Amino acid sequence: MTLADAARVDPPPLVAVVxxxxxxxxxxxxxxxxxxxxxxxxxxxxxxxxLMDIGTAKPTPQERQRVVHHLVDVVDPDEPFTLAQYxxxxxxxxxxxxxxxxxxxxxxxxxxxIKAVLEGLSIxxxxxxxxxxxxxxxxxxxxxxxxxxxxLREVDPVAAGRIDARNVRxxxxxxxxxxxxxxxISSVQRATPPPYRILRIGLTMPREQLxxxxxxxxxHMIAAGLVEEVHSLVARGYGYSLPAMSxxxxxxxxxxxxxxxxxxEAVALVKRHTRRFVRQQANWFRADDPxxxxxxxxxxxxPEREGAPVxxxxxxxxxxxxxxxxxxxxxx
Length: 332
Prior knowledge:
- By secondary structure, the chain is an alpha/beta fold.
- It folds into 2 domains: 3-122 and 192-322, Rossmann fold; 130-188, Histone, subunit A.
- It contains 14 helices and 8 strands.
- A 6-stranded parallel β-sheet has the order 3-2-4-1-7-8, sandwiched between helices. A two-stranded antiparallel ribbon has the order 5-6.
- α6 (130-143) crosses α7, α11 (226-235) packs across α12 and α12 runs antiparallel to α13.
- The protein is globular, with a radius of gyration of 20 Å.
């Protein structure tokens, strides 16, 4: 049976590729294009922004030419983009991939995006309030992120327990929803699993090796022009206080451009904060999660093992589709 036949079987397949930053999720997705007719639905909360390419490690033009990527370059850096918007667009993109008789890969490391799609979170559709956001961000500037998180804990301790205090954007959004709905955001979030047959694939590697890859990745970003990218964004009028500009790399390069730290110090900060972010990602993608099929993509083994993870992952996908009477051959 081909994937065309699979599309007529309910539920259709969805493969999620998850794991920490720098583990090689995009590379795996591109490699899987040799085995299946795939399209990628990005689950990265930073790659949605246009003009922010280097610091978000977007797939290259060549990679995007080889494999279609959805939900990349969706909004400008100063445009609001909510979880509800992401979820709606992701479901639409997945539906489009299925309609073309292809296999959707949900690829990314933003845990909340992955959760929203795979678990079908019911997300309150509350329009952003620019004035309220500006006031909350001003409070962060004046009193620090912990003060804002303390405020969230007062109105919604459940949400506060789920959201890291350093994730200012999520804290601001949670407070915004609480204030506008006049009830805790946690009280209106429910989950209804979507109509997909879901296979979760996780990529992992020894922590120290991952840290080395992060360091190399940051150094590559600097060499590729991250400082110039941030300077260009500011020159276009995108202020440092925008949520989009608070992401890893952009915040630290902004500190350098404002003369607050040296370039060497800024680079060290990016590396340190990225490592911390990886530790936070582990809370979303747990090593003991029975629903995730984990693959170690660390240092390659003997020559006969070269490429084994990709082959093993492709075999797992094919077997999963076969088990749902939706077999996919390498010519899909």
